[in-house]
């Protein structure tokens, strides 16, 4: 049998809360702050860069297509 049995399912899809292991707490210093779980509050910077590029590219494409329509209707 394992040291940490799996708890019964509660129907929730949320991951269980992170708890420090007993072995790591005994080796840490008394004044150290407890470890906090990593929570991602905002998307990576690359997402903003890609969205900016996509928006600029679509507006440039739209401007080019509009220019073609304007030139075609003026002839």
Explain what you see.
- This protein is mainly alpha-helical and 75 residues long.
- Helices cover 48% and strands 0% of the residues.
- It contains two helices and no strands.
- It has helices spanning 22-27, 45-74.
Radius of gyration using CA atoms only = 27 Å
Mean pLDDT across all residues, rounded? Answer: 78
- Total of DSSP H or I helical runs spanning 4+ residues: 2
Low-confidence segments = none
Give the number of DSSP strands.
0
Percentage of β-strand residues: under 5%
Query: What is the H/E order?
Result: HH
Q: Structural class of the secondary structure composition?
A: mainly alpha
> Could you describe the largest sheet, including whether it forms a barrel?
none
The N- and C-terminal alpha carbons lie at a distance of 83 Å
Share of residues in helices: 40-55%
Shape: elongated
List the helices and strands and how they pair.
Blueprint: H1 22-27, H2 45-74
How would you concisely characterize the structure shown here?
The chain has helices spanning 22-27, 45-74. The chain is mostly helical and 75 residues long.
What are its keywords?
75 residues, 0% strand, mainly alpha
């Amino acid at each position: 049998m394992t040291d940490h049995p799996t708890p019964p399912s509660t129907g929730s899809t949320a991951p269980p809360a992170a708890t420090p292991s007993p072995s790591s707490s005994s080796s840490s210093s008394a004044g150290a702050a407890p470890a906090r779980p990593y929570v991602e509050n905002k998307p990576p910077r690359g997402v903003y860069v890609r969205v900016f590029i996509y928006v600029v590219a679509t507006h440039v494409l739209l401007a080019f297509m509009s220019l073609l329509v304007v030139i075609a209707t003026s002839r």
